[in-house]
Amino acid sequence: MQRIVILGGGTAGWMAAACLARTLGTEGRSITVVESEEIGTVGVGEATIPLIETFHQILGISALDVLRNCEATFKLGIEFVDWGRRGERYLHPFGPIGADLNGVGFLQHWLRHRAEGGASAYLDYNLESRAAMAGRFGMIPLRQPGEQQLHFAYHFDAALYAAMLRRYSERLGVTRVEGMVQDVRRDGETGDVTVLALRGGAEIVGDFFLDCSGFRGLLIEQTLGAGYDDWSEWLPCNRAVAVQSGRLAQLSPFTRSTARDAGWQWRIPLQHRTGNGHVFCDAFLSEDEATRTLLSGLDGPATIEPRMLRFVTGRRRKTWDRNVVALGLAGGFVEPLESTSIYMVHSALAKLMAMFPRGERAHPATIARFNAMMATEWERVRDFIVAHYKVTERDDTPFWAHCRNMAVPDSLAERLTLFAEESLFVEQPHDLFKEPSWAAVLIGQGMMPRRHHPVADAAPREALDAQLGRMRSAVAARLAGLPDHADYIDQCIGKAAA
Fold first, then answer.
1. pLDDT for position 44
2. Which of 42, 129, 148, 354 could form a disulfide with 123 if both were Cys (CB 3.0 to 4.6 A apart)?
3. Higher per-residue pLDDT: 356 or 496
4. Which helix (H) or strand (E) covers residue 16, if one does?
C-alpha cells in the first residue's frame, strides 16, 4: 500500500488530491490531505488562464460545474490601465490574433500594414478582445470551417473552488485529516520525510508527500532546506492588501489591472462579489497608504476588512526534494499579474503524473529532470511579468522610475532586443506565453518593432488590405452573435439548476 500525504488544503492541496485520485486512483494506495481550519488560505488567485480547462477535462469537470459551484464568471483576458503611460489602456487577450499568411506570422503582416499607413489596431483581429470590451460571452454554433469557440478562463471564488474539489476528491476515496503539524520525522538513512506528528498525538505516516503548506514551506523548506531564489531585484513588489466589495453592475469578462504609484491594483468580477487587491513595494509605499489607495479605488464599498499579505517573489531551488514535492506557494510565488498561480499548480501536477515514481523511491535523474523543467517554467513566467514593469514610458513616481531603469535578466533582455529590433519571437522550451501574448503586452505598453519580415512585403498592398479586411469582418460577424456575458451566465445557471 503506497501512502501519499498532502500537507495543506486550499486550492493547491485539493487540486493535487483530485488529480492524484483521478489519474492514479486509490486502489493499492491511500491519499490523505492534512489541513487545519486554524490556518487561513491566501486566496488572492481568483483569476485563471485557459489551460485550466485542460485540468478540468482530466477531472471531468464542466464549465457548468464551475459556474454553479464557485460563483464564477468567464474571463477573456486582462485589461491593463496606466501601465505604459498614464491615461492609456490595452488588453492582453486569450486566443489567436489574426492568421498567418504566406508562411509568416500575422504580426509581420500587421506591422507592414501599419508602416504603410494602415489604421487598424493589432487587437482588431482578435475575437476575445472585441468580445471582452463589448461585455459579451457565449458558446455559439460554429458555421465556418476552422472556426473555434472563444478561448476562455474563469474568475472564481478560490475557497468555493477548493471546496468543490474536496467534495470531488472525497467521492474518489481521498481522506481528510484535521490537524496542525507539531513535528516532522525523517528516515535516518535516506533523509526522506516519514511521519507528520499532529497536535493531540495523531501521526500520519507517508511514503510520498506533497507540500501545499503555503509560503512557509513546512516540508520543502523548514524540514528539507531546499533553498529559495529571491527575485526581488526584478520584481520589487513584496506586499498585497486584499479586500472584497459588492457585485459589479456590469460583469465584465476580463480581469482589470490598474497601475498605481508603487504597484498595481486588481479587480476580479464574480457573480456574488468583486475581488480587489493592491500589490505594492513597501520601500516606496507604506502599508497604511497602500490600503487607503485600494479602498479609495474600489467600484463600491468594501464588504470585509482589508487583509495584508507579505511575500518574497521567487521560486524554490528544488521543487522536488527526496520524497517531497512542493506545490502552490510552497513551490514559488510570482505576483498574480498574469493569473499564473493556479496554472503553476496544475503544470507541476501534469509533470509529476508523467514522472511519478515507478517504485518505492524516485530515481535521482527523474527528480533532477522535474526540477529543471519547473525551474525553466518559473523563469519564463518571471520574465513575462518583469517585462510589464520594464517596458514602460512611466517615470513619474520613484517606483516606476526604478522599474524603467532596472537591469533585467539576460533571457528577458535578449527577447526584448529581438522583438524591438527585428520583430522576432523565438519560442523557448516551456514557454507558457507565446508570440500573441508577448506582442499584445509589448505593443500595448509602447514597444513597436522597428522592422517586419521581408516575406510580408510579397503580396500587393491591395491584396493584403483585402485579406486583413476579411479578417476584421469575420471577427465582427462572430461578435454580433455573442450574448451579453451576465445574461449568458444566468442562462447557464438556469440550465444547470433545471
1. 53
2. 129
3. 356
4. helix 10-23
| Beta carbons of 79 and 132 less than 8 angstroms apart | yes
Catalytic residue among 75, 318, 351, 390: 75
Cell 529571491 sits on residue: 230
Answer yes or no: 75 catalytic: yes
Distance CA 140, CA 270 (A): 22
What phi and psi, each to the nearest 5 degrees, are found at residue 303?
-110, -10
Q: What is the pLDDT of residues 95-125, one digit of tens each?
A: 999 999 988 999 999 999 999 999 999 999 9
pLDDT at 41: 62
Distances in Å between the alpha carbon of 112 and those of 18, 253, 350, 444, 473? 49, 31, 40, 18, 20
Q: DSSP label at 216?
A: G
pLDDT, mean over the chain: 95
The 10s digit of each residue's pLDDT in 306-325 is 999 999 999 999 999 999 99
Q: Which residues pair with 278 in a beta bridge?
A: 241, 265
Q: Rounded CA gap, 228 and 231, in Å?
A: 9
Pick the range with the lowest mean pLDDT from 34-48, 73-87, 481-495.
34-48
d(CA 213, CA 35): 9
144-154 average pLDDT score:
85
DSSP string, 372-427: HHHHHHHHHHHHHHHHHHHS----SSHHHHHHHHS---HHHHHHHHHHHHH-----
Kind plus residue range of the DSSP H or E element containing 324: strand 324-326
Q: Could you tell me the three cell numbers for 373?
A: 523543467
3-state helix, strand, coil in the chain (%, to 5): 40, 20, 40
Burial (0-12, 13-18, 19+ Cβ within 10 Å), 124: middle
Burial of 358 (0-12, 13-18, 19+ CB in 10 A): exposed
What are the cell numbers at 445? 505598453
Question: What separation in angstroms does the CA of 341 have from each of 44, 50, 345?
Answer: 9, 13, 7
pTM: 0.96
* DSSP run (H or E) holding 10: helix 10-23
Residue 67 banded pLDDT, cuts 50, 70, 90: very high
Cα torsion for 40, 46, 49, 54, to the nearest 10°?
60
DSSP label of 483 = P
* 379-426 pLDDT tens trace: 999 999 999 999 999 999 999 999 999 999 999 999 999 999 999 999
Report helix, strand or coil for 186: strand
In contact, 118 and 466? CB cutoff 8 Å: no
